[in-house]
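Hi Y.,

Following your request, here is the sequence exactly as I used it, all 56 residues.
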Amino acid sequence: MPLTSHPSHRPLPGPARVRRAWAWGAAGAVLLAAVFLLYAEPDFVVMMADQLWACF
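Below is the corresponding structure, written out as C-alpha cells. Let me know if you'd prefer a different format.
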C-alpha cells in the first residue's frame, strides 16, 4: 500500500478556499478593530445610542 493512500495524507486546499479563509480572517480583524475603537470612544457610543433612542 503506497503512503499517499493513507487518510492523513490529504491534498492541500485549493486557492479559492484559502482566499475565502483569508477574507473571513480579514473581516474578523476589521470587526474586532471596530469594536476596540468604539470601546475607546465611549462618548461616540453614547451619542449614537441617544440618536437611536430619539428615533423611537
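The radius of gyration is 22 Å.

Thanks again,
Q.
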